[in-house]
Amino acid sequence: MTRIEGSSVVRRFTALFVVTLALVTWSLGQDSQTKSKPKSTADLERCLSEPSCADARTAAHDLASRERFPFLLKRYRGADEATRAYIVEGIYGSDRGRNNDAVVEFMSGIAFHNTPQNRFDQTTWYALQFLAERCDERALERLNAGGGTAKQPHSYEVSCNFWAITLGTFGKCRYFHARETLLNSLNSSCLDIMNAAGDSLHALYPGQCTNVKTFNHATSCYTKLWAEEKK
User: What pLDDT, in 10s, does the model give residues 18-50?
Assistant: First the structure.
């Protein structure tokens, strides 16, 4: 092969490589646009209606954010356990649902009409917490009943940062019946729980027990404070 022929081959190969690279880049760009394009409401509803839905959790959350509550409540009745959990979780994350009477009734049914086996599961917590954030007295009472002791901060099958949300709600709703639960939670190994419990106690008793440094000191301070209240 002559030098000129060799250069021609190299140029052709380089050109082919550039064209191939451009096609691959374009194809990846098309895939990215397809994946990033939001699904229509009809597509999401179709997905959530099928047992083979690959991303039922996202579909449930997206439909709740779009306030497709009538569909979600109807779908819940015929859904499997996992899809039901996604629907309740999605509704909990929707602010608009808190002002929807049908949604509130739906979440109340899950919160208060469950079996002993699922009383403390995550789905029940979502329903109760949804209502508690509306300062629903029954929901606050039920959550507080699962508050546990200083050694076991809570009974619900949720992570500590979720339970911290509940503890924060006790303070925001000024639910004084939870004060012992809050005090016990100061001994938690979870920083989120400790902080939420402390903030709620300060919300319930502003200006009191602000300089305590240990759990024992906090226990002593609040116990004396509560004893004074009974006099």
Answer: 445 445 455 555 554 444 567 899 999 999 999
| Residue 189 near residue 215, CB atoms below 8 Å | no
Q: At what angle do helices 191-204 and 160-172 cross, to 10 degrees?
A: 0
Token reading at 160: 């500590």
List the domain boundaries for the chain.
Answer: 40-145, 147-231
What pLDDT does residue 4 have? 46
Our measurement of the distance from residue 163's CA atom to the centroid of its chain's CA atoms, rounded to an integer in Å, reads: 11
Q: Which two tokens stand for residue 6?
A: 């060799």
Signed CA dihedral, 38, 43, 48, 53: sign only: negative
What's the token pair of residue 201?
A: 């106690």
Supply the angle between the helices 81-92 and 122-132 in degrees, to the nearest 10.
20
* Residues of the chain predicted below pLDDT 50: 2-4, 9-10, 18-19, 21-22, 24, 32-35
